[in-house]
Structures are given as structure tokens and as C-alpha cells.
Amino acid sequence: MNPADHADFGLLSPVSAGTAASRLTSDYQFIQAMLDVELEWTRVLAGAGRVPADAVPAVEQASRADLYDAAGLAERAQGGGNPVIPLLADLRAETKKHNPAAASAIHQGATSQDILDSAMMLMARRTLAGIVTDLKSAAAALARQAEEHRGTITVARTLTQHSLPSTFGLKAANWLSGVAQAGVRLEQVAGELPLQWGGAAGTMAALTELANRPANPAATTAAESEGSAGTAAGSAAPNNDGGALALAARLAERLGLADPVAPWQTNRLPVTALAAALADVLAAAGKVANDVLLLSRPELGEVSEPAAEGRGGSSAMPQKQNPVLSVLIRSAALAGPGHLAQIQAAAAGAIDERPDGSWHVEWQALRQLLRLAGGAAAKLAELAEGLVVQPESMRRNLAITGELVVSERIMATVAPLLDGGSPGAGKSKVQSLVNQSLANQGTLAQLLRDAVPTDELSDAALAELLDPAGYIGQSSELIDRITSHYAEWSHS
């Protein structure tokens, strides 16, 4: 068997291919996460005197993912419905090569779901760190765009049509608001990812029996000495009180996961919370990509993606420069909701004390969300940092609508001047002037000048009324509020 025949290199998922998120969620990285959980559990038990201390070095030597055949494990996982079972058999066999007696120390008091769920959380935590970093880079770049273009007048579009004047700075700030809000939530979720450790039925029965055995003080002392190298920097000394809950808490600490109130074998909300946060990242990134795709059309030409050698070309049309970053981000954003729905449906369908199939369907969906969000965040950072803005094109497009772009302002200001003693009557008169302008029966400026006496609306006041730059509301203040609100987070 050629292992490459079974590998997924991301050929059909270019948004995540070659990214850190793709690498950190590979089959071998997940194998490593499962091995890390098993190893840290052995260290915890040895530190508490529940397994022989001299088992730890042998398990350490066997806990390398490159020692195992991922394709073979995947096939053998069909026998028990999950990859932990064959991996555990291989881990014990590999451990015996270094210390025959050490194999019996592995996996005591645990069950397959403990290992797989905890490994999934561990893999997610490792992957989320890079995603959050990319989101912060994107947010900082969007804040710079917002500041640089706070006075760049453009047209706001609602339901695809020109509506009111705005600024490109506010558009960038609104992009920032979505991206940063999603990033803050994702970072929060990353810090809440919990250990799953409930045993076969969520009662922690086997671990309780193990914890109730008399501890071996000599084994505890030796384990503390030999296992110290594997303790995370800054973590507390091993918890040796021997209680089942305390042992699980110690494992959570060593893995960098949260210690949950209780096992969550069929309460899948930790998974749905993670999935929802990843989907929000995709939605926020997708909004930016959608706008860039629209604004970069040649007939609009208001922005363009950063150029890069070999990117954006066409095999048949050499004149094209395709906005590939936005295309890939959009593809990820469109794919995300399906995976989220799958995870939520799985959580809603969980039964008994271990779900029959709904647990299994989470795995690939969650990994895909991690990859999609990771790929989208990396490309969003590049897009935001290199986005080219074309103020001249924005002014040209704004001029298509002309004075009509401030018709809302005109209605509020001029209608009362045309009431003729009948409150509200002026609105229909202004609407008539607008309709005449739309029918090319004169410019709105001239029609207004003819309709309103200069003693009620001077030429200077009319010119000011029709200036789009004078009708952008609180745009500058909103930019300041958004950028200042997320400044500390995006630079942390």
C-alpha cells in the first residue's frame, strides 16, 4: 500500500492547503495529540504513585507519531469505530520494546472517548493560536486602512444600489469590527477548551477505583523526578492527593486545557461552541471578501488585491488578474455553515452516555472548520495588509448618481421650504423634482434652484447641501470608536 494514496494534501481545498492550520490538523498531528494525552496521563498517574515511575521513560520514547502508520490505523479504526483502539494497541507494543512492564501503565482509568475528545480539544487549541494571530494581523491592517481613508468619500450601496455618501474608512472599520469581534470570541473559546475525562460511562468509576488504591510513596517520588521534564513551564507541582477529580484536573493543567465541572460525553456544547466561533470567523472574513470581489470588478475598480508572482492569472486569458485571495476566502465562508450545521445536528442527536454515530460525525466536520478558518484567516491578513484602494474610482462611481446621492438630506431640508402652508406637502414636490432629474429633465441642482427662492436657500447653502462630503454623519467618530475599541486586542 502506498501511504500517499490515502493522504489528503489539500488539492481540492486550496484555501487551506499549505497553511499552518492544515499542518496542525493533519492525521499525524492528531495521532500526536492522542499520544500526548496518553503520555501526560501516564505522567499524572506516576506522579500520584498509581503506576510505576519507571514506566514513564518508556512511554515517552513510544509517544512519537512518526512511529505509527496513519493509513493502517485509519483502516483498523473500523473495528472499534474510533482510532484510539488500534493506536493504543500499537502504543503498548512500542512501549514494550523499551520496558516490557511499562505497557500496563498506559490508559489506566480512561476510555477511548476521553482520549479522542481531549486530543481533539488539544489539537484545536494548538491550531487556534495561529488563527487568532492572523486575525489580529488582519484587524490591525484594517484599522490602518480605516485611518488612512477616513476622508475618502465613496458611495454606500444598499440592496445593490447607490444609497448615501460614506467613506471607505468606515467600510474598513466595519470590516474590522466583524473580524475583531469574531477573533475575540475565538480567543475566548480557545481558553475554555475543556478536558474530557469521564471513563466508560461518564461516572469516572474506573479512575475512582484506581485512585482508591494505596499509593506507592517511592513510585511517587521517582515519578516526580523523572516526569518533571514533561511538565509544562510554569505549571504547578504534581497533585498527589490521589482523588479521581484531582487527577483529572492535573491532566487538564498539563495539557493546557480547562478543567470542566463534569465530564461532557453527551453534552456536546464545548464542541458546538468551538464550531460556532470558527463559523463566525468565516462569516466575518467572508464579508470582507464579498465586498472586495464586488469593488474590484473592472467596471467599479475601487479596490484591488495585492499582487503576487504567479497568483491571479488565467490559463486562457492573460489580461485577467483574478482576486484569488477573496475567491478562496469566500469559498471557505460558504463551506463553513454546512460543517457547523453537521456539528449542531450531532449535538442535538446525542443519546445515552455515549452517542452512537453522532459523536463520530463531529470529527471531520470540526477539523474542516479549523482548516477553513485557518486558511481564511491567513489569506485575510494578506488581503487586508496589501489591499490597494482607488479613491479616484470611488469619486467617479459616486458621480454616477450625482446630487441624487444626498436626496435624503434634500428631502429633510427642502421639503419644509416647499410646504406652502400645508405641512407635509413639500415631500411630494421634492419627489417630483427628483423624478424629473432621473428622467433627464434637468440636474437636481438646477431644479432645486428654480423651485426654492434664494432668500430661503442661498446659492452657497444649496451648494453645501448638495456636497456628498457634508453628509457622512458620524463616520469619523464611528471609525474612532471601532478602532479604539479593538486596538489593544489587535496589537496584543
From TrEMBL:
Keyword hit for Lyase: yes
SMART domains listed in its UniProt record: ADSL_C
Pfam families, per database record: Lyase_1 (PF00206)
Stretch list, region Disordered: 215-237
GO molecular function, one term: lyase activity
Start and end residues of each Adenylosuccinate lyase C-terminal domain: 402-483
Transmembrane segments: none
InterPro entries: AdenyloSucc_lyase_C, Fumarase/histidase_N, Fumarate_lyase_CS, Fumarate_lyase_fam, Fumarate_lyase_N, L-Aspartase-like
Coiled coil: none
Keywords tagged on the record: Lyase
Gene3D superfamilies tied to this protein: Fumarase/aspartase (C-terminal domain) (1.10.40.30), Fumarase/aspartase (Central domain) (1.20.200.10), Fumarase/aspartase (N-terminal domain) (1.10.275.10)
UniProt family annotation: Belongs to the class-II fumarase/aspartase family.
Protein name, as recorded: Lyase family protein
Organism per entry: Arthrobacter sulfonylureivorans
